[in-house]
């Protein structure tokens, strides 16, 4: 009898606990039913549209490889060691280029692609956190970047050839100048629209990776060139259409950048040898800003926010748009309507801090 009473008390305690949690017995029965774990082929079809365009572009080739190897298997079948083996396979089969680093990037991206897939599976309740094998595989340690700032002489050579060769030197020169003045990434330039130009304050709205958005100061002359480009090539005012276009009005893609640097590489051996790309311009500008202004201004100029290795102090020493405007004024040698006291202006030559006059790159 004592055991019966004890059991009844336990049941009543459980009922009270469930009532407090808002959970019914039927909920427990439904949620305890096992869910069928899909195969990689099935699940990759589901998540293809659930990721951002950037992630889809970065992971597409790796997801194709996963389909080839594991397409028929369930998500809960591969082990951490098998994922490691797949990453090593991607490393060995990576395309060898002049700037290759032993396939480390391919291995890292393969693991990232699997982590993305398994994170969705955990969120969908198909697997538990503990059953996620991808988090137990370490990515290869990243090596220091080989990119660095270009010298004034190199930058002058790049602009001289871009403005005198190719099938659309006006477009190419405008593109390069946009990247030098804003230190934006390729995606930021390609996403630029006519509606993103604040003419009065000389600002352009950059939308880049991670869905970040920021207003970046540019020189008055660059703003005028962007407006003229939009008017001449069919990017109507007040629209959300892409700004940068060919003469026939067709919008440019990433392939234009490949064409520019391949062309320059045929004329300048160091461009081809070191595999110079648009991202080197970002390094060039940000290095100049950091040397002549401060780390905080360079960080704001780059659009870096959130988690970083600079410590919590970065929260309190952020630079604002007026300080970035002062940097762009010193960089280009042109006054900017938002520029605060130009602390670094005295260090910049009149023709522009990077040794390239706005007239030379327009």
TrEMBL record:
Q: Where is the Tyr recombinase domain?
A: 145-329
Q: Where is this region: Disordered?
A: 335-362
Superkingdom, natural source:
Bacteria
Core-binding (CB) domain: from which residue to which, for each copy? 38-122
* InterPro entries, sorted: CB (IPR044068), DNA_brk_join_enz (IPR011010), Integrase-like_cat_sf (IPR013762), Integrase_catalytic (IPR002104), Integrase_recombinase_N (IPR010998), Tyrosine_recombinase_XerCD (IPR050090)
Per UniProt, the keywords (alphabetical) are: DNA recombination, DNA-binding
Q: Name one Pfam family in it.
A: Phage_integrase
Would you tell me the protein name for this molecule? Tyrosine-type recombinase/integrase
- Name the source organism: Dactylosporangium roseum
